[in-house]
């Protein structure tokens, strides 16, 4: 295998993992605050539709990314109002948000089906990007890849090294005690929800702006659900989210190469391989009392302030 072929395969893995990293990091912060948002798929698909529509209409990838962030954040704000302000069941609200998002994305993207736009391309640093084996992989990715990695690092630092991060985690572990200490439980949870939605919207926009630069209904293809599973797989730790996303990205790329090599296996089975790999990893690495103990203790519990 040549060095350029090796780099292309690894870059394809990273590209496939990037939207999962972004979406899962947003959901991780939301869940750390004690809110379980199952609407990641819905927020991603709306972000994908709005991101492509804005980018195609303006010719700007940046505008498209911001539109995806805004769309995801607005949907998360709706979810936050229902579950935090009105204390409606989080599981039911999240599922409803996914169904609503899938329908809304079809409406928003109806006029853009089949249209294409140019891929924004990758960063090129003379000398560094041309290094054998690792040049393109480290110094030649698209800007969203570096943004995703920065998001992982900043989130890990925020949750463990800042007062606001520790406050958010304490609310996720015991919202009643946090309220008794005077911490703003509802506001913190709402902001965490909006952040998670903005990340999901950006992840969706990445699909239509970079990964496959066109819009098609249902193109998230379950990635929102995979992002939810990755949070559990990672034991609510940011760096493990990145590793889990790379695992899924590798399975995605391998199944594409397996189909091209004609191994004689049904194409449907090969297409399901990435999801099967994620489920198996989830079962193997997220089981046991230690993993269960890693979950925020108040996850999914509605907060009602005592009178």
Description:
With about 300 residues, this protein is mostly helical. The protein has a domain at about 10-220. Helices cover about 70% and strands about 0% of the residues. It has 13 helices and no strands. Helix 2 (about 40-60) packs antiparallel against helix 3, helix 3 runs antiparallel to helix 4 (about 90-110) and helix 3 packs antiparallel against helix 9 (about 185-210). It starts with a helix and ends in a 14-residue tail after the last helix. The mean pLDDT is about 85.
Query: What does the largest sheet look like?
Result: none
- Our measurement of the CA-to-CA distance between the termini, rounded to an integer number of angstroms, reads 68 Å
In DSSP terms, counting alpha (H) and pi (I) runs of 4 or more, how many helices?
Answer: 13
Order of helices and strands: HHHHHHHHHHHHH
Give the overall shape, derived from the CA principal axes: globular
Number of strands: 0
Helix fraction, binned, reads: over 70%
The average pLDDT score comes to 87
- Which stretches are low in confidence, meaning pLDDT under 50 for 5 or more residues running? none
Radius of gyration: 20 Å
The chain-level structural class is mainly alpha
Strand content: under 5%
């Amino acid at each position: 295998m040549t060095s350029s072929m090796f780099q292309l395969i690894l870059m394809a893995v990273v590209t496939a993992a990037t939207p999962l990293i972004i979406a899962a990091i947003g959901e991780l912060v939301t869940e750390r605050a004690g809110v379980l948002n199952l609407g990641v798929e819905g927020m991603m698909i709306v972000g994908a539709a709005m991101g492509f529509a804005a980018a195609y209409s303006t010719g700007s990838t940046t505008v498209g990314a911001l539109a995806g962030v805004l769309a995801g954040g607005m949907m998360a704000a709706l979810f936050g109002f229902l579950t935090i302000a009105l204390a409606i069941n989080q599981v039911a609200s999240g599922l409803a948000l996914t169904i609503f998002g899938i329908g809304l994305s079809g409406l928003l993207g109806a006029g853009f089906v089949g249209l294409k736009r140019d891929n924004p391309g990758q960063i090129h640093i003379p000398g560094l990007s041309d290094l054998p084996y690792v040049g393109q992989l480290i110094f030649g990715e698209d800007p969203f890849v570096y943004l995703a990695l920065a998001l992982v690092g900043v989130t890990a630092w925020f949750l463990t090294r800042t007062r606001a991060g520790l406050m958010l985690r304490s609310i996720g572990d015991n919202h009643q005690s946090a309220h008794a200490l005077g911490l703003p439980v509802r506001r913190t949870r709402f902001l965490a929800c909006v952040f998670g939605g903005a990340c999901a919207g950006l992840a969706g926009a990445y699909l239509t702006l970079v990964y496959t630069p066109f819009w098609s209904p249902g193109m998230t293809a379950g990635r929102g659900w995979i992002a939810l599973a990755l949070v559990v797989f990672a034991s609510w730790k940011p760096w493990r989210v990145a590793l889990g996303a790379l695992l899924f990205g590798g399975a995605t790329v391998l199944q594409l190469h397996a189909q091209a090599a004609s191994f004689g296996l049904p194409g449907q089975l090969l297409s399901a391989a990435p999801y099967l790999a994620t489920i198996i990893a989830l079962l193997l690495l997220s089981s046991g009392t230690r993993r269960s103990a890693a979950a925020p203790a108040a996850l999914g519990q509605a907060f009602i302030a005592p009178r």
